[in-house]
Structure of Uracil phosphoribosyltransferase:
Amino acid sequence: MGKFQVMDHPLIQHKLTIIRDKNCGTKVFREVVDEITMLMAYDVARDMPLKDVEIETPIAKTTSKTLAGKKVAIVPILRAGIGMVDGIMKLIPAAKVGHIGMYRDEKTLEPHEYFVKLPADINQRQIFVVDPMLATGGSSIMAIDALKKRGASNIKFVCLVAAPEGVKALRAKHPDVDIYTAALDDHLNENGYIVPGLGDAGDRLFGTK
Ligand code: URA
């Protein structure tokens, strides 16, 4: 079974409180999502493999560590996932970015795939799927289905706020996927929103409604 980790570092908790507040405007919301994602990326990358390289410091020759192994692809689930790309890119600037477009039918709450554009070598990459809200789990399950269909196997899912219902559904369907979240909230309401959550992450990031 993959990992399930709530990344409750004090800085992350503090910043999450800022964006949960309904009075937080679009500019600050976007900036703070970026900061939280960067802080999370630091720890999500903790198990990236290293290899030895020989280098020369100004003082002596030495053996030192450098990243080895799989290259990274960040895959935001459109549209809210886009808000989490730059935070990871700040720490892993060579990552490629794929996009998966999902929308949620507002009546049935069922997710639908409408766009998939991925790096050609996606099957050889360590993939970070990002979406701020893990609500029913429907979109993340479909996005990961879409990735696996194209040969991807090494997948981590990173969100900001998760509902227990979504965590359960995602782990049941994709038990190999590690899940990282900044908070595990209470429940989903009848409209599919996470309670207490932070509202519609896409609307809050992009200033729409
Ligand atoms: N998507 C959101 O943006 N917010 C929720 O609370 C649930 C799904």
Remarks:
- The mean pLDDT is 95.
- Residues 53 and 59 are 16 Å apart (CA to CA).
